[in-house]
Specification:
Blueprint lengths: L1 H11 L11 E2 L2 H8 L3 E6 L4 E6 L5 E6 L6 E5 L4 E3 L4 E3 L10 E7 L2 E6 L2 E10 L2 H5 L40
Antiparallel strand pairs: 1-8, 2-3, 2-10, 3-4, 4-5, 6-7, 8-9, 9-10
Amino acid sequence: MRISRLIVLPIMLLMVGITAADARMLQPHEARRFVAGKLFAYTCFDGTRGLGRIYSDGSVSGTIRKRGGRSRFIAMPRGTIRVTRTSICAALRGAAFQPCFNVVKTSRVSFRGSLSGFGFAYCDFVRRYPRKKRASPEKPVVKATPIKATPIAATPKPTPLQSAVMSMPPSMIP
């Protein structure tokens, strides 16, 4: 359970944000609309980083990489992130408390998420657009030159096989 609690901070903070000129605190319903279903890369104050998505049903999936460690895939069930009229919180089985988050929109594609009451514990999130990167520029069309077909030479028909009995001398037939 210790690992799931450590993983939760960056994922839950996906719902939170802070920055200079553009920064504005989002209400829970605004944060949900801004984040739900979209893919975000994140970097946290402690060096943790990854890529994740929070779905409208409150489920979470993505990757997490602790400083100096390997990337790991994580998935949390629906209802893990709970958005109410006044708060955004995480429901974690076995957790001593239910963490809640502040979300500050830093630009039209980014935000900072922090634990309520612990502003130093934050993650910065930037939206990613995976389909745009997969698309490749069109390749030039190369005209094919027709190949002249040459017929295969006719081969003689094979002679029919005789049965073994027919090829035996009459003295050997019982």
